[in-house]
Amino acid sequence: MEIHVIVDGRLKSGTAQGQILFWDNTLKKWVFAETSELFWDDVNKRLGIKNTTPTSTLDVTGTLTVTRILAGGVKE
Predict the structure, then answer these.
(1) How far apart, in whole angstroms, are the C-alpha atoms of residue 52 and residue 16?
(2) Pairing mode, strands 58-60 and 46-49
(3) Which residues contact 36 (CB under 8 A, 6 or more apart)?
(4) Separation of alpha carbons 60 and 21, rounded Å
(5) pTM of this prediction?
(6) Which candidate, 51, 53, 32, places its Cα nearest to that of 43?
(7) What confidence tens digit (pLDDT) does each residue in 51-60 have?
(8) Cα 75 to Cα 24: distance, rounded to the nearest angstrom
(9) 17: how many CB neighbours lie within 10 A of its CB?
């Protein structure tokens, strides 16, 4: 699966601050994510997933499944 994501600072009519534009391959067009799902805080450069008030660079509300996490200074 290929995912293309951009943050568009030029808000269009009907969009909310913090909305993220992404490519929907089924619809074959760019669509806005709901701010309750993905939220970009442009002032603090933070991304919220299921969170409209992110308090860190990446703030996830809910369950997160990952294959591997490399912390700062760890090398493979």
Answers:
(1) 11
(2) parallel
(3) 50, 52
(4) 19
(5) 0.62
(6) 53
(7) 989 999 999 9
(8) 35
(9) 12
